[in-house]
């Protein structure tokens, strides 16, 4: 039997725990839609992730510990709220810290993130999910991750409603469908890439 896949969700909410988070709710729904996958959730703002583009910014930087979980995972879920039509500042910091992966390679010249799958989860009370997922996909593929077909799930409410995803009575059918599709495609692709690695280029 093949080794079980591992998934890590980085929740980029601006709210520290234990505050409820719509981004975390959607991230957990993505993970729940991945049967037989070991999963972990990290709310990034709960940790002292320093600004910078190095693997370790020193002085108590929490990124190295989070990065070790990324390296150990087969699937990365990046979940962010929408503010002013943009991803959160916490999400931007995650992308900036991932920049260091460009210089991390194995003996064959492959990036250590190569072969890992990444999907996006976006929530908000205004438009912006396509814009944000486009930024996430470009950043994640630049830093070695592979995005599956339909690798995003999102929920955007009408601005006039001023509702949070976490306060809905039930998950909207469209979002549920996107969540299940993104999860299934991520698991499928992760298994394929685990069985057949990308070719060495070094």
From TrEMBL:
Classification via InterPro entries: Flavoprotein-like_sf, FMN_Rdtase-like_dom
Domain NADPH-dependent FMN reductase-like: 6-150
Coiled-coil ranges per UniProt: none
SUPFAM superfamilies registered for this protein in UniProt: Flavoproteins (SSF52218)
Domain of life: Bacteria
Protein name: NAD(P)H-dependent oxidoreductase
Lineage: Bacteria, Bacillati, Actinomycetota, Actinomycetes, Micrococcales
